[in-house]
Structures are given as C-alpha cells and as structure tokens.
Amino acid sequence: MLIRRPDPIKPSEITPRSAWMSRRQLIAGAAAWGMLPAAALAEALPNLRKSDYRVDETPTPQKDITHYNNFYEYGLDKEDPSVNAPGKLKTRPWTVTVDGACAKPGTIDIDQFLRAEALEDRVYRHRCVEAWSMVIPWVGVPLGEVLKRFEPTSNAKYVSFTTLYDPAQMPGQRSREFAWPYTEGLRIDEAMNPLALLAVGIYGETLLPQNGAPIRLVVPWKYGFKSIKSIVKISFVESQPKTLWNSYSSNEYGFYSNVNPAVDHPRWSQAKEHRIGEFGRRPTLPFNGYAEQVASLYAGMDLKKYF
Amino acid sequence: MQAIALRLVNWRWARPTAHALCALPLAWLAGRAALGLLGANPVEASIRFSGDWALKILVLALAVTPIRQLAGFPPIARYRRVLGLWGFAYAVLHLLGYVVLDQFFDWQNIGHEIIKHKFITAGITAFLLILPLAITSTDGMIKRLGGPAWRRLHKLVYLAVPLAALHYIWMVKAGRTQPALYLAAALLLLLCRWGYARRR
Fold this sequence. Notes:
heterodimer; A: Sulfite Oxidase, Chain A, domain 2; five-stranded mixed β-sheet; B: mainly alpha
C-alpha cells in the first residue's frame, strides 16, 4: 500500500500556497457577491485513479447533484442549500479531529489530505430515505484506509461522525427542531468495508458547500442521511453512538438504515424510487444494489428489527 | 370600507379577475415547466406545487362564509364557488401528477399505498370527499338537491380540508409549520361557523 510510483509534479508544488490561497479567497469572495456562479468555488482535483467501484448507470447531471440537496443546516427545501451554503460555509482552514478508542489520535488537515491521498473516482448509486435516487461520481478515499492510520483499539466497536456546529455559518442550526450538530455513526466493520468512502469531490472537482464540503462520508448501501456532510470530528467509540435522525424519530430512522425495499418507512413505501431525471419509479434494490459487497456484514441479523 | 368592497365585487370584471387570479399559479407552473425551471425533480415540484395551491385556495373558500357572516357582507358569497372549484382543479392536477408522473399508472402500487400509508389514505379520502361537491356545484344540481340537502352535503369540505392538511403533515420529513397552519386555519374557520350558528 505504501509503495507508490512517485507522483508527477503537482500544481500545488509549483504555485506557492499563499498565492493559490489568496486566489481561492478572491474566487470565493466573487462568488459570494454573485459575480461568479457558485460552481466556480469548485476546483479540479488532478490525478484521480479510476476505481473499479463504478456502477454501469448514467450519472445524474452535475447541475442536479449540486441543486437538489437535503442539508437542513441550510434550509428544508431542496434548492435551499445551493442558495444558502456557498456564501456561508467557510471550508478553509478545515481540520477533522480523530479521537476516542485509538492508539494514535490526531487530526486531518484538508489541504494536506487533498495533496497526499491517492484520490479515487467512484460512481455510486445514492438512495435517499425520501425514495428518490441519483448516480453520483464521487472523488474520495476508502474510509477504512484512513481510519486504520489512527490505529483503533479493540474497544473501537463503532465510529461516530460529527458535522461542524456553527449557527453563524449554518443558520439552520438555530432551529430547535433538531438536536444539532448533525451526528452519524457506523459499526466498525461497516466503516472498514471498502465501499465506505470519505469523499472530497464530485465529478472530478472539490465538493461544493451544498454537497458537504470540504469532506463528507458516503455509504452507498445506506439511505443518504447516513452519509454525513462537512465532518469536523470522527471518534472511535465502544457503544452505538447517538445519531441525529434516530434521535429525531427512532421508529422512522434506524441506526442501520440500510436501503431495504422490504422494510417501508412507517409513512411511505421504500419498494420503489424516483430516479432524478426519469419519470415513474424503478424498483429499489436490497442494499441499494451492493448486497454482494455488504450483505455478509448483517448475516443472522433480523433486518426488519434492525432497520 | 363596505362601500369600496361593494364596488369591488360589483365591478363587471370582478369575476373574470377572480378566475384569472386563481389561474395565476397554474400559469406560473406551466411557464416554469416549459422553460425547464422546475429543478432537478420536476415531478415532485409540480405535485407539491399543485397540492399546496389546492389547500391554499380551499382554505380561502372556507373563509368566505365566516367573512360574510362576521363582516355582514353577503355579496362575497358568490366567490365561494369560484374558489371551491379552483381548489378542486388544483387537487385534480395534484392527483393526476401522482398517478401519471409519479406512479405512471402503477395501479397495484397505488392501491398498496392507499391501504398501507396513512398520508396517501388521507389524501385520497380528502379528494373523494370534495369530488361530489364539485359535481353538485352547478345551479341545476343545487335546485335538484334542494337547499338544505345541498348545504348538508357541502359541509363535507370541513372534513376534507383538515384531512388534506393532515395528508401534508404526514408526508413531510420535517418542517411541519406550513401544513400545521393550514390545519389550524381550517379548524379556526370551522369554529367561526359553529360559533355563529350557536349564537343565532
């Protein structure tokens, strides 16, 4: 894993950091003032490795992926995050704290991470608990590879994730309806599954604020809300962590929340889904089509009980 | 105040204007659809939009009689049917959107959802409750049924609108304020009528 061909010289080694940082601020400033489309905030991510994890389905257009989002920190309507997040979310400097049951707690600096990691280009299905779906070309690193470096101990039975908490940057957090900040969790074996991805980009570019910039989780066999956005903290913990949607309504949003057409949401059907860009509905696949890779994680479990 | 209101409702373009105002949301929806401005999920956008306007207009229709009674302004009554029928029209669009665009005539699944999911049950029930009201909305039908029977039948709207609001409340994942306001408005207007009927 450590044997890698020396990388070609990256643009980041030629341009001094201060120069591209101020350029980035200029661009962000211009976008905030409406002088540039928000898409200008995204930067191309070079040297992507095409991963074998690619579903053979047409990717959803970038415009739809970036303008149809559930990110309640920026409003309840799907278009709200694309309007509200770009001017508000400050994605630099950004560090992720990694702590808890591990031998080497530490931090991840996003700029360092972007430079050092072997970023992969993966195309995943994305299935929202609201019964719509997309196909998204993510850029990221397998979560397990990153977590291993912090050397989780045998007490690390679960991994919990926390989104930034800052009502000034995330105005939706002023609402008392939810137990902010957004939290999510995975069982350690789920987190170590090669499909679980720490994503930093979409369509070969850095994540836009509305998609959970600068770093987010992607767990393609679970409902979308498990894929927590704008992560600032990852903790190895011994017992099942509290998660926002489960705390909000535990009979509707289970801890596992694996995509399962056989277990309906108490208020609506999960048997079919509306693929963005299509009419009508297509059948939903068990584990969102990833049963081969992940079904063994749940062998012997009653998935109606542990929904 | 009364005089201005009277002149307004007696204005010869008053009724066409009321129809035009009610048609405005539909024109807006059609325009945005034609220009491809309904976003990533035009199916959901048009279904939500038509359902929302059905509820808004039906709540307005419910307000007509209390306004007539409390403000002592009889001429407003002639707009009740305009509003009621437009509310029904948006409800038809809403239902068609669900059956055609969302489900694409998957009758088996639609049947399953009506039985199993209470928000669909409430929605379809609300529609079935206002359907006979739309059918019996003509002058001829009022005569055939006779005033008292017609009025009794049309009280169904007080069941339909709260049900439609519940349909909305049970549908959303979060953010129940707007549908709760519709429900509160419908119940308040019902209370107004009860209060008025008891005083007399």
